[in-house]
Amino acid sequence: MAAWTITKCDAADLAQVADLVNAAYRGEGGQAGWASEVGIVSGQRTTSAALEEDLATSAAVSILVLRLTMLDRAEAEGLAMGAEVARMTVVSVRETLIAWYERHGYRRTGETERFPYDDTRFGVPLRSDLEFVVLEKRLVAAGA
């Protein structure tokens, strides 16, 4: 069995991470995927420049790199780095994805955030009813 490692993303990883995110959410034939935003927003979901800006904005922001998404491990890494809460936003009309996160312990906070309609770095919205739902999960050490 292969050993898996998760590392913090560095500048050399940003282009590949952006490509992966764009393919996963808006890629060709992505309509069948549960994470798909095809038909909701077109264009790129992110760019390496946007990811670089996210990393430069705060020392508390990290992008973890593994070739497969492992939510439990990402939460454990956050906890190890001192985080008490995992917080994310999901496009409000992505009910299947929101439900998946809820099955993994995330809860809607009741907060929403404005969708960046005027910022094409996130793609070109195909709908006028988009916003982000804020989800949180309290992180606790195993056995606590």
Description:
There is one protein chain. This protein has one domain: 3-Layer(aba) Sandwich (Aminopeptidase), CATH 3.40.630. It is globular and about 45 Å long. The model has no long low-confidence stretch (mean pLDDT 84). It is built from four helices and seven strands, in the order E-H-E-H-E-H-E-H-E-E-E. The strands form three sheets. Strands 4-7-5 form a three-stranded antiparallel beta sheet. A two-stranded antiparallel sheet has the order 1-3. The chain has a two-stranded antiparallel ribbon with strand order 2-6. With 144 residues, it is an alpha+beta fold. Helix 1 (14-26) packs across helix 2.
Report a brief summary of the structure.
With 144 residues, the chain is α+β, with helices and mostly antiparallel strands. Helix content is 29%, strand content 22%. Helix 1 (14-26) packs across helix 2.
